[in-house]
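Morning - copper (II) ion inputs below, output right after.
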Amino acid sequence: MNRLLILLVLLLPTIPALACPGLVVREAWVREPPPGARGTAAYFTLRNDGAQTLVLDGWTSGAFAHVMLHETVMTGDRAEMRHREQLSLATGAQAALTPGGLHLMLMHATAPLAAGATVTVQFNCNGQAAQLSAPVLQEAPSSR
Ligand SMILES: [Cu+2]
């Protein structure tokens, strides 16, 4: 490995922090798809500890052909999923993506996905490239 490659490898884990100052991602996980299914969802908690509003959009993942931010809305007694263009976090604000609420819809997995794998999601944070990683789990991690 030459020096440039080593430098790139060392820089990779720091990309999200550099590109999205103040964004704290916690409790990220992806639900293991049912057997034969190619779609699932990612859940996590976001907090903006930075000094400026953060606008997140442009979600993609190498593991899925389509990634969309959805919110679950009750229409009468029916739950409907609606596409949200972006997620805006004011300074100090939090957003929880949870089952039955806001979530990142992961559609058309490019390969079978099982518990134990890790999904990396890329997104834009105020127009800059950022990313987060989430383990694939069979069920929600117990909250502390
Ligand atoms: Cu959805």
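Note: The pocket of copper (II) ion is lined by residues 70, 81, 103, 105 (CB under 6 Å).

O.
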